[in-house]
From TrEMBL:
It comes from Caenorhabditis latens. Catalyzes the oxidation of either pyridoxine 5'-phosphate (PNP) or pyridoxamine 5'-phosphate (PMP) into pyridoxal 5'-phosphate (PLP). This is pyridoxal 5'-phosphate synthase. Pfam families: PNP_phzG_C, PNPOx_N. The lineage of its organism: Eukaryota, Metazoa, Ecdysozoa, Nematoda, Chromadorea. It is an enzyme of class 1 (oxidoreductase). Belongs to the pyridoxamine 5'-phosphate oxidase family. Pathway: Cofactor metabolism; pyridoxal 5'-phosphate salvage; pyridoxal 5'-phosphate from pyridoxamine 5'-phosphate: step 1/1; Cofactor metabolism; pyridoxal 5'-phosphate salvage; pyridoxal 5'-phosphate from pyridoxine 5'-phosphate: step 1/1. NCBIfam families: pdxH, PRK05679.1.
Amino acid sequence: MVIRSFLVHSCRQLARRTLAMDTPSIDIQNIRAKYNNSQEPYLLEENLPTTDPFSLFDTWFRDVASQSDLTFEEINAVSLSTVGKDLRPSSRMVLLKAYTPTGFSFFTNYTSRKGHQLEENPNAAMLFYWPKVNRQVRVEGVVEKLPDEMAVAYWNSRPLASRIGSKSSLQSEVVPNRQFLESKKAELTDLAEREGSHAITKPNAWGGFHLIPRYFEFWQGQSDRLHDRIVFERDTDIWLLKRLSP
């Protein structure tokens, strides 16, 4: 009986896969987007406002933040890529919460998958993509944990609903269903109503990371695919500037 059930299940899976393969996929080969930055059509070395990559990032970030008709809201969303000791890369979107002349900061649960991977291997990469201006910035470097007092200060500045949501979740842990999370949320919501919002304290395993760059790449798209790629790479105490072929 068990063997029969297994065979029936396997046949159904095979039938579904066959049906999926027989259905034509969406034609994506001929999708072509036109890239155009009207303010600065080409990214030329001689026109750079600065040769300090941190200052250039600030210039680009302020520019995209000033756009009034963005197609997305979170301009500080960034893809963070990490690799643990198993050498299997992992990427996810996080929200950049600060950038300074030393690096880029974000907050997370240290027990999450990215937290474990960064503990095993502090090398990480970030990718900012702003399609409105046809630009992206790649940053590679090494992360350090932010001081706990900075994490506490940021935690306390967050909306109560965000704090409750974060504290309800053991990030990346397996849970039985959505209701499990909703129950945790309800418990903490009741606690906040009884004792005040200050009762939703920062979990010990929640904190911040600061990525210290050793590599920047400023990319500007061109419709003919001869994209501009300007790279800054740290050599001891100076940044070396070079252009890469697209």
